[in-house]
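Sample intake sheet
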Amino acid sequence: MTQDRTMAGFRFQSLQAGRGLAALAVVLYHAADTITLPKYIGPDPTGLLAYFLPGHAGVHYFFVLSGFVIYHVHGHDRGAPAFSNFIWKRTTRLVPALWVWLAVVTTLLYLQPGAAAEAFGLRSVLQAFSLIPVEQEVVLKVEWTLRHEMLFYVLYALYVLYRPLGAIVLSTWFAGSLISHLADASFPYDFVFSPFHLLFLSGIGIAHVLSRRRIPAPHMMVAAGFVALAVAWLRDPGYRVDGLNGQLIGFGAGATLMIAGLTELDRQHRLPYSVLLGHLGDASYSLYLTNLTIISASCKVATIVNGKYGLPPLVWFCAAVATSVAFGWLFHRYVERPLLRMLQRGRGHAQRNREALVRWI
């Protein structure tokens, strides 16, 4: 869920559009899943909201896209300076906005009366801020994907620092993730070798191919990817994050084909650019971080108000989605983006000071 837009001198607009749509799909999933809980509005009599539940496929898309971006941007990086640059860029993209939102969420949780606040101890808070592997998310439910992302970054950083060893470690990691579904592993092994990591490998494969040759019949590839996603969406048996199941394969294959085809079409300047999707893609990380918390708050308000007006769940679903998207964009505009600019300026000043010191010495 990083947001690099320029890769090897070329700007892939489709990545931003795809990122925005993937984030929106996750919002739709969370809204449909939360609003129909018995403690909120309850079941949807029309059954329409059930069609949004497979929106968690946006996570699969994000993972494939992450592998693609990391390899395309850093595929030729090597050595200590590149290692330091990689760690800085990846950490600043992931951590500052997360820490700000975790501070907000943690404060809100401790302000809740009763047992809800008692369930959140210091250990859970420290685990949330550290992004280390955990068996269960307590503070911020959506953070589980960021922990997998951080693990990928750490292992890829080794590849940047010392390529031979890093290649062995990454290959072993992907192989373990492929065969892990055969063993009934428990935490932390089921986290370290999650089949979800194969989605990173798919993205790396696309970037490797694109760096060497044109992709034939990109329109057909996009169509095939859309069909794969649609079939997996309609046959979605429920959200599972364990095992190499048909859901992971279907959504992963669909995302891989679509990203490959769209980036090739983008490279050939055969895709129009959507300003709206571009803005949504820019705000996708903030939207992903904040959406479940905002949706839960919207559902609490909807439950109170619904006692007076008795509106159908679909109405509250639309209200929760709109509120979440608006808040995510505002968080990006006034928190995430200023934070990144401040960190970039700070690093620039530090580099200039070091260069001036070296010249003076």
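Comment: Residues 1-9, 239-243 have pLDDT under 50 and may be disordered. Residues 313-360 form the longest helix (48 residues).
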